[in-house]
Amino acid sequence: MGLAARLPAAAAFWVLLGTCVQLPSAAADSVAPRPLPQAPQTDPALRFAFDGQMIQGGAVIGTAPKGATLLTLDGAPVPIAPDRKFLIAFDRDAGPSATLVATLGNGQQVRRALAIAPRAWDISRLNTLPKYPVPRPEFEKVRPAELAQINAARRMQSDSAGWRQTMLWPVVGRISTLFGSQRIYAGEPGSYHSGIDIARPTGTTVLAPADGVVILAAARPFTLEGNLLMIDHGAGLNSAFMHLSRINVRVGEHIRKGQPIGAVGMTGRATGPHLHWSLKWRDARIDPLLLAGPMPVAE
Ligand SMILES: [Zn+2]
User: How remote is the CA of residue 251 from the centroid of ligand 1, in Å?
Assistant: First the structure.
């Protein structure tokens, strides 16, 4: 599927920026005596505020109500920064709703129902079998250790404030595969594309999309990801860059947005030189296109 065909849909997502729909109350039609309605919250500081898209694969920076000491998203705690900002994001397959609850210092709770817009993913059905069918024995032997290294990296949380920044495209070029796209081989769904692919020649400099701390810098190519670099942007958000020909940075290093971090390559499982960039917030896989915005036109 060409990018041009997908762009109008991607552009439409931006219209949703900052929207948040209050779900209708299930108790609205109840005939039982109603509890006293809550006084309408007129002070905006006592309400939630949002900047971002409530959409599958999207991320939102929120501002918690004034006095909030605790915040949960569907029951899971979300840290609040001293300026009341917080980050939440929605997986590619996130359900249609989620609930934020802020607990104030006086014990009062502020609830907010979130409506998460669905997306139409690029699904292609093929009559053929996958190009890489069954893993070979040597793959099965080394893969568990590679996955353990990736999972250990993801558990390393930094206090980086990169999550607050608008992301920069690490390379500018043609997007060859979109996030979330999926192939179904003779009725068998393959796993969806977990990042975005940008086709660029080997050796093209890769820039850090936001501030962060290096949590993984592969010493040698991983079987699938090749030379893999992972950067933590704080608040549970991290980037992974795959198939690199070169990695310029070391684990623990603090990175600035726009800093060169490596170079495009085709190490690991890649049919041509490209950068695969993926973003995760906790366990949610999110779409770099929604955080970095439309790809700029190449010089
Ligand atoms: Zn990819």
Answer: 23
